[in-house]
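Course exercise 7: structure representation. Students receive a sequence record and must write out the corresponding structure in token form. The form below is the worked example handed out in class, using NifU family protein (190 residues). Read each field label carefully; the graders check that inputs and outputs are placed in the correct fields and that the protein name is recorded exactly as given.

STUDENT ID: A-19
EXERCISE PROTEIN: NifU family protein
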Amino acid sequence: MLIRNEQTPNPATRKFLPGQTVMDGGTRDFPDAPSAEASPLATGLFETGMIEGVFYGHDFISVTAAPGVSWTDLEPIVVEALLDHFVTGAPLFRPGSAAGIAVDGDAAFEDSPEDADIIDQIKDLIETRVRPAVAQDGGDIAYKGYKDGRVYLSMHGACQGCPSSAITLKRGIESLIKHYVPEVESVEAV
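STUDENT ANSWER:
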């Protein structure tokens, strides 16, 4: 089995591609060791003491190195852990854990029924244009709400803490959504 890895716009995060499905549906973000209790793989990665975050996408795993950790030292450790996991067919989540909690399940703002058409357009753009592009960089983005011309999104995985994420949000995502949905005045990260 070959596990490829790719750099992401976030220099602290690498995207690992095992060549098979990681999550059948949704995504899962582990921003710290306590949040990883549901997943033996994520727990094992955090136990190295060299990891600051783990993110599961449909067909990839993004790993964020702790400050001061070199990818030269960390990459073979991560690849070994991923190989062990996928070759043995170990479960991604512990039985009885909250395995199905996806990024999309995070708390959101309450949308106004009068904005339903605008919100549908925004969600469609996020699902069809934005999320696939963000996933290529090892992350995910989720709709959180719309109010008074503002769209609220949460960023996960490689997108979180990336030096260029604010630029991507404002110049890329905001420009795209404003172009197709003129009622949108700004896009904000939450």
